[in-house]
């Protein structure tokens, strides 16, 4: 009876120390077909056509290689360099900018899950915060950016302003 109790206690302790961490590991999730910490979104969204403006706050991205990778990602759609970038982004979009939100969501769909958080904010509040350097990334449609004079953000802060032009895909 003592031996049986010892075996059960030992097995339970081993399961708690080894089994539970294994069941929560990315390796186990991949074996079962689930997502892991670096899996991308299930479906990459098509980028909407039009012209967009992206502001990146350089003061928050001090590693020049990471900054160059993010600039390439937003401006040219290159995502091959991002596999070595482990920093997360907080992207802000004006709440009245449907096209900007659609573009931000298309960027988000390419990145690994939870690497980019997209939130909307009143355009005047967003630009006021941006003038004081309180932003990470801002995505706006060119029309909204022109309407509210958002170009001043690049001049007033340590920000890169990228223009993204997405041509409309022709149907065959």
TrEMBL record:
Q: What is this protein called?
A: Conserved domain protein
Q: Which organism is it from?
A: Ruminococcus albus 8
């Amino acid at each position: 009876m003592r031996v049986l109790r010892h075996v059960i206690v030992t097995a339970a302790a081993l399961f708690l120390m080894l089994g539970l961490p294994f069941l929560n590991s990315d390796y186990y999730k991949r074996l079962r077909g689930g997502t892991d910490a670096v899996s991308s979104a299930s479906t990459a969204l098509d980028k909407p056509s039009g012209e967009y403006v992206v502001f990146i706050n350089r003061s928050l991205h001090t590693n020049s290689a990471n900054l160059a990778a993010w600039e390439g990602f937003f401006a040219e759609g290159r995502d091959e360099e991002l596999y070595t970038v482990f920093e997360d982004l907080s992207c802000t979009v004006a709440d009245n900018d449907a096209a900007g939100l659609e573009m931000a969501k298309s960027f988000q769909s390419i990145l690994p899950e939870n690497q980019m958080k997209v939130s909307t904010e009143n355009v005047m509040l967003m630009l006021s915060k941006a003038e004081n350097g309180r932003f990470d990334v801002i995505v706006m449609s060119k029309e909204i950016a022109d309407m509210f004079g958002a170009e001043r953000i690049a001049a007033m802060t340590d920000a890169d302003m990228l223009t993204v032009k997405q041509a409309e895909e022709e149907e065959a």
